[in-house]
Amino acid sequence: MLDMQKRLTKPFYALMTLPATGMGFGLAVQIAALSALMRDKYDLNLEEIGFVWAAGPIAGILGQVIIGMISDKTWFWGGRRRPFILIGGLLSALSLLALPNIGVISQAIGFMDIVAVALVVALTLDLSINVGFNPTRSIISDLTPEGEARTRGYTWMQTVSGTFGVVAYALGATQGNEFLIYFGVGLVLLFTIPTVFLMEEPKTLANADGSTDSGGFDFGRVVTATAPLWAVFAFDVYAFGSRLMGIERHGYMPEIIAAITTAALLVWFLFLKKPKASAGRDDLTEFQKIMAANAFSWIGVQSMFVFYYPYLEHVLPDGNDALWGSTTNYSFLVLNLAGAILPAFVLNPAARKIPRVRVQSICLTIMAAGYAGMYFIGTSPVLLYGLMAVVGVGWAAIVSLPFAILSQRINPARTGLFMGIFNLSIVLPQLAVSMGVGRYLEAVEDKSVLFVIAAVSLLISAGIWTRVTPLSESERTQ
User: CA 450, CA 300: separation in Å to the nearest integer?
Assistant: First the structure.
């Protein structure tokens, strides 16, 4: 074991975050380039773009829960998380290479349905990222003690990852998306493969009761933990199945039913169901609240990521592909700059004074205000960049604090499994956005309504976070 790991020095915190940074950079490349490539190069409409983006959530549903569970109980190549980070990094780099070559791949295999080929490429990339992403987050929990040190680990993760996210969008804006993609290939390989050999993983992880058995796969636990999102999952299955089978959807009754059912479930879990334990280990009631809160955050975030480019076409009607593309990249650059600076230097110090769940709620309320500004005054690139800085306050919280909050609600020996289950609160809403929001935006003339949807989602999320029971002072700092 390296001395800096024993002493948990700042260089080790930085090193520990590099695998997650590599995977995050691959995701940033996808966010920056995929919609623009689909819109400009292959002339897909918004519903088709949303369908291609649906590959990511599907990969997350399949990949993160399964890989997380397996990594909890596996040890080979000298680690528990190491093998999956290595495999995920290599496959992600190879998949990135395919992004600018979808047309070439389509011609080579003699299959001219660009949407189908793009879906397969995006699904392969997302499966690769999801193989590695869960272990890169779980390893931070594995290598840090509970309390402030672990919060520092996850805020450092976002600081380093966010910094390189800024680099990604700066390269996309100044050098073009194809250069960004090829640069991303090299960086993903560099940050995921050599770095994991510099960290020594513990061979056993103890539960709160002192046991080290993570247990088998408990399907009932997964179903129970995800209960607030049952209606979202049902809608996702219906919408994606309809698109695959070519069934034309009329009206918005499935969306309305899903929304009403989700609202009813939230009322039950937030106000009527009594917790079986205090806000501590394996309290699934608290876990369900965290799942619901995080899900609504990601409805707002994913809506922005997928449909920001078409939104720019609407609010900057005199622009062109170059302007819309550069504005997209500079906007996400500002977003990630805020996301890089705030976690370690603002959010982590704030979380020492007030509960993390309160910090999270405040940041999301600020983010909703930024989204409202996008709707009312987002009329020029300069204004959009300023508003994106406001939005970045919430983004910084979303990608850092929930993991620290979650890590103190679960048993360490089940970290991979619960991180995988928690990821469903990201991917199920993402799929709903791709299948529902995209279809709605394609039908309405005012594309800026995107940010009404996003703002409302963030306000709901902020409200749910206030219902999560804060940890006591001793639990937060132990």
Answer: 9
